[in-house]
């Protein structure tokens, strides 16, 4: 079990009629347009869509890094709109893990100190057994004392995954986590995320442009023009690529029509 507050039957991320509008008056952009969707606990979701379709905005709103213009986002049963800045910061430290394309490790800290940073920020003393366990799980037991500059890209992303998992968060959000990695290393990193879902009942939500990466997920959600444009369960690379080609063609048509929204 992962020690979170909602029963497994509930959605760990829940959007109800979420709109996100950037800008004012004549120059507004509707990045999310009445999005309603639930993501189940202990599942791996990939979010895909053409450039500008709202993927990053979806992730930012789901993680409470950005607030919707209207509608409700619930994370682990908590309506994020009810939280002030301090409560949101606490939620980010304890209930949410992040893995970015650019790793975002602290260069002066060792592997162990990078991994345990979220615990220390949350005021918790890291327990040796839990630290050993997570570092073992990502295959870095022999590199505990190394600094990020001494590690390959794939190893650095493993550190970032361990750092995301150490707090046993309700959700790990990935923003193109394999975007900077070669194909083989990317596959290893995706397998680690899969394993976290299957073995540790972790929930993972990942934005990606890569159909191969998306095919590691249980489900792919497609966004187009700020709306959910469908989903694929147990996706194959070919199905994801075909769906993306169709959405890309549609996005191209909209641009040709003057970006009508
Ligand atoms: N801070 C902002 N101010 C104004 N417009 C924004 C802002 N952030 C995003 N947008 C607009 O909202 C829309 C959705 O952007 P978003 O970054 O969510 O798309 P995306 O699918 O992640 O794109 P990409 O794949 O290119 O990263 C785009 O039209 C974008 O220009």
UniProtKB/TrEMBL annotation:
Domain of life according to the entry: Bacteria
InterPro entries tied to this protein: AAA+_ATPase, ABC_transporter-like_ATP-bd, ABC_transporter-like_CS, ABC_transpr_LolD-like, MacB-like_ATP-bd, P-loop_NTPase
Keywords recorded for this protein, A-Z: ATP-binding, Nucleotide-binding, Transport
GO function term, MF aspect, one: ATP hydrolysis activity
Keyword Ribosomal protein: no
Keyword Repeat: no
Cellular component annotations (GO), alphabetically ordered: membrane protein complex; plasma membrane
SMART domains: AAA
Ranges of residues in domain ABC transporter: 13-250
Pfam family, one: ABC_tran
PANTHER family found in the cross-reference section: ABC TRANSPORTER RELATED, IMPORT ATP-BINDING PROTEIN
Entry protein name: Putative ABC transport system ATP-binding protein
Species assigned in the record: Actinomadura coerulea
């Amino acid at each position: 079990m992962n020690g979170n507050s909602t029963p497994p039957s509930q959605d760990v991320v829940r959007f109800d009629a979420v709109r996100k509008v950037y800008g004012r008056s004549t120059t507004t952009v509707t990045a999310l347009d009445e999005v309603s969707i639930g993501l189940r606990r202990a599942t791996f979701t990939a979010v895909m869509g053409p450039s500008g379709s709202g993927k990053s905005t979806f992730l930012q709103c789901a993680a409470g890094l950005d607030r919707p213009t209207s509608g409700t986002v619930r994370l682990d049963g908590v309506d994020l709109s009810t939280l002030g800045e301090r409560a949101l910061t606490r939620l980010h430290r304890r209930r949410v893990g992040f893995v970015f394309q650019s790793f975002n490790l602290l260069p002066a800290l060792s592997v162990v100190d990078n991994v345990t940073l979220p615990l220390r920020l949350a005021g918790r003393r890291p327990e040796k057994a839990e630290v050993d366990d997570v570092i073992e799980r990502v295959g870095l037991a022999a590199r505990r004392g190394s600094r990020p500059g001494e590690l390959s890209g794939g190893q650095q992303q493993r550190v970032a995954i361990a750092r995301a998992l150490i707090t046993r968060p309700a959700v790990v959000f990935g923003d193109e986590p394999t975007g900077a990695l070669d194909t083989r290393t990317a596959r290893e990193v995706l397998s680690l995320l899969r394993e976290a879902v299957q073995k540790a009942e972790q929930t993972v939500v990942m934005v990606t442009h890569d159909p191969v990466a998306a095919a590691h997920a249980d489900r792919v959600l497609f966004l187009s023009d700020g709306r959910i444009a469908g989903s694929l369960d147990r996706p194959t690379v070919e199905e994801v690529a075909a769906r993306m080609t169709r959405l890309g063609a549609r996005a191209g048509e909209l641009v040709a029509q003057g970006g009508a929204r």
